[in-house]
UniProtKB/TrEMBL annotation:
It holds the Pfam family Hydrolase_3. PANTHER family: HAD SUPERFAMILY HYDROLASE-LIKE, TYPE 3, PHOSPHOSERINE PHOSPHATASE. It comes from the Bacteria. NCBIfam families: Cof-subfamily, HAD-SF-IIB. Coiled coil: none annotated. The keyword Ubl conjugation does not apply. The keyword Hydrolase applies. This is Cof-type HAD-IIB family hydrolase. GO terms for molecular function: hydrolase activity. Keywords: Hydrolase.
């Protein structure tokens, strides 16, 4: 049995099954891990409010890693007074340029802006926004995006949703034109854009220091390309059975899929056996 002290878990496609639920078996396994005084940390592209129900359902007290590492919160209650352990935002200049470029060349894509625990859109009736709202159980605010970008709060994430071929084209353009942001697909239809100073690996390293744990005492579990680097970095990197081949190839262990109790199986293999 591995000497794991911290588990970093992705949410969608990993902790949650295809119905966006945590099964009772997985929940029981996580609670056993926490009872062993092992930190179980949620690490996701989601906003804080989109993680809150899961956080409380699991009854964990660890920090939350939001927006793929652009925002780390240390307060278990996850409210507006949460202690901010780390925050990395996209510059106003880059956010404006990205927005203008998308409106000019990719107008069919759905543009979403995130700042701390606020989700801002231009049309709450957009089909993509309704779909995402149903999944994460959060309602966005309908705003003037340009005005919001130029306020002082800072942009933690830009999310573009749309047809996969347009998402792929935009990803190539962002990667070739903007040096201070990074982007990745969390789904074929979702492109996540954050500061270059935000990543799941940087977040793991920050919380290693926070909890005084060694690299080999870290387990990371994920299912997609935005989890690839943390799976490679962790002492034990676990890929879900539903992960792409490249993610599986980079892992130390491939568990079952998110619809086959893959999380439970991984925890039992390395911690609970």
């Amino acid at each position: 049995m591995a000497n794991i002290k911290v588990v970093f878990s992705d949410i969608d496609g990993t902790l949650l099954n295809s119905n966006h639920q945590i099964t009772s078996c997985t929940k029981k396994a996580i609670k056993k891990v926490v009872q062993k005084k092992i930190e179980f940390i949620l690490i996701s592209a989601r906003m804080p409010s989109g993680m809150k129900a899961i956080y409380h359902d699991l009854d964990i007290k660890s920090p939350l890693i939001c927006y793929n590492g652009a925002l780390i919160l240390g307060n278990p209650e996850v409210n507006e007074n949460s202690k901010i352990l780390y925050s990395a935002t996209i510059s106003k200049n880059d956010a404006n340029k990205i927005y203008d470029n998308i409106k000019r060349k990719f107008s069919n894509l759905c543009f979403n802006l995130f700042s701390f625990d606020q989700w801002m859109v231009e049309n709450t009736e957009d089909k993509w926004i309704k779909q995402e709202s149903k999944i994460i159980k959060v309602q966005p605010m309908e705003v003037n995006i340009k005005n919001c970008i130029n306020q002082d709060e800072g942009v933690h994430k830009i999310l573009c949703m749309g047809e996969p071929h347009l998402i792929s084209e935009l990803e190539s353009e962002i990667n070739s034109s903007f040096l201070d942001v990074c982007c990745y697909c969390s789904k074929d239809e979702y492109l996540e854009i954050t500061s270059i100073n935000a990543s799941k690996v940087l977040s793991i390293k920050a919380l290693q220091l926070y909890f005084s744990v060694k690299h080999e005492e870290v387990m990371a579990i994920g299912d997609n390309f935005n989890d690839l680097a943390m799976i490679e970095y962790a002492g034990i990197g676990v890929a879900m059975g539903n992960a792409p081949k490249q993610v599986k190839d980079a892992s130390d262990f491939v568990t079952k899929s998110n619809d086959q109790e893959g999380m439970q199986w991984a925890l039992e293999t390395f911690i609970l056996s």
